[in-house]
Amino acid sequence: MVVSLILLWIGFCLLLFLIRTRRPKNFPPGPQPFPIFGNLLQLNLENPVIDLQKLSERYGKVFSLYFGGRPAVIITGVEAMREALVTKAVDFAGRPDGVLLSHLTQGKGIIMADYGPGWKEHRRFALTTLRNLGLGKQSMEERILGEVSHISAHLEKCAGQPIDPQTLFHNASCDIICSIMFGSRYEYDHKFFQAMIKMMADNSKIANGPWGMIYDTMPLLRYLPLPFQNALRDYHTIKMHVLDVVNEHRATHTPKEPRDLIDSYLDEVDKRGKDCAPFDDGQMLTMLLDLLFAGTDTTSNTIRSAVLYFMAYPDIQAKCQQEIDMVLEGKDEPCFEDRHHMPYTQAVIHESQRSASTLPLSVFHCTTKDTGLMGYDIPKGTLVIQNLSSALYEEKHWKSPHSFDPSNFLNEQGQFEKPPAFMPFSIGPRTCLGEGLARMELFLILVTLLRRFQFIWPEDAGEPDFTPVFGVTQAPKPYRMVVKLREIMT
Ligand code: HEM
């Protein structure tokens, strides 16, 4: 009797699952899901990007998968990406709930905030404040160049010895964001700063990695002591630290004389008066954490990838250095405007970004209304995953899609040219808010370092390995590098 009841119950659950995972009419096609897991077991969770590419060859540029019982649409290639994120921009501008990242942020702030007034106003506020604090002006360049001097000082001390640059580049990227948000930077050996950098790097591997996917797919496991609990705990620890910094600002801030982003937010709340919604403490904290997370791993991992390519292709490194030496002759430091006179170096930096594909699956989107894509119907609330890597390596859009080749960004006359398929910052209304800052950082940091140092692959390290470590932000495998000081012609 008990056995029959159990079998009946299992049969009922299976039937329920099959009904729930029956693709709606004219929904993008995809492989048959399994009970409980959906299509999760058909993906290599250590790095699903290759599997997603293979599935798109079978099912088309727009196809679907089930994460547990939840359907997701995967967008592949430039044309589908443009139709969704530019032509039907608002339809695809939502963010999903019920995933690890949205639980961490409780849907507040900017990155995981759903499409609506709260997201719109915070995005506008952050962009305007970044601009006011000097983006596009000299002072932002000074902040970045100031940070580069710390990197250079550190590298000078280590010249000749093999070092892993991961922590150094993470520190520098994080310090640039801290100086914008908090008005001050941390010394690299500051205890909490070091712990925070490690927590952020670990969290990036967990979210979107195997444990993140398990969290998103199987709600029943969320309360077990599995690695995603570390992500939740670490996020809270960093949040409490940022709260202390906000409280210090409250005590010392002079109205209408903002020193940094926190002061600007406090001014905004004052300006709005009693009914300051959607601006409040919870939103401010999440926005600050968004910028801290979004601006650290991304920039740092891109710089690490670029340096790996410099070492793997010493002739390309030398050609950049020749151009940089010529353009900067007689100058102490580069400025962002110099990029217009450095087509080859610009091409190499962009090619590093293309090859690194730092956010391979972007940040997950969600449809805000019933809509369509490439002839398929997609209901409101569907999870949408952009395979950004597919655009960055799409064969018809690049001269050399699968090798490291700066001529992907050079025209016949040797001038720098950015193909429309170059979208590492995504496109559309949710495009990276920090793109301007990130582009300035990449140029100023890499040009200054190339001018000052030669990067050499250690003799005993075997061949450089370009296999990426997957996460929300994809990183090169840890490596060691040797730096040698160069003569600067000033
Ligand atoms: C090389 C460095 C960077 C890369 C490759 C990158 C890439 C991206 C991508 C692909 C997205 C998702 C866009 C989408 O959902 O369609 C994104 C979002 C975002 N990025 Fe970046 N990013 C970088 C640096 C930065 C920096 C330095 C900041 C901080 C100032 C930043 C802040 C943000 C924010 C706040 C969002 C969420 C935008 C929204 O939802 O409206 N990013 N970024």
From TrEMBL:
Residues binding heme: 432
A single GO CC term for this protein reads:
membrane
Read off the Gene3D superfamilies from this record. Answer: Cytochrome P450
Q: Does the keyword Oxidoreductase apply?
A: yes
Extract the GO molecular function terms from the UniProt entry: heme binding; iron ion binding; oxidoreductase activity, acting on paired donors, with incorporation or reduction of molecular oxygen, reduced flavin or flavoprotein as one donor, and incorporation of one atom of oxygen
List the GO biological process terms.
organic acid metabolic process; xenobiotic metabolic process
The record's subcellular location field reads: Membrane
Domain of life from the UniProt record: Eukaryota
Write the record's keywords in alphabetical order, separated by commas. Heme, Iron, Membrane, Metal-binding, Monooxygenase, Oxidoreductase
Task: Fetch the Pfam families from UniProt.
Answer: p450
**Names of required cofactors:** heme
Q: What is its main location?
A: membrane
Tell me which family the UniProt entry assigns to this protein: Belongs to the cytochrome P450 family.
Name recorded for this polypeptide: Cytochrome P450 2F2-like
Q: Which gene name does the record give? A: LOC105909894
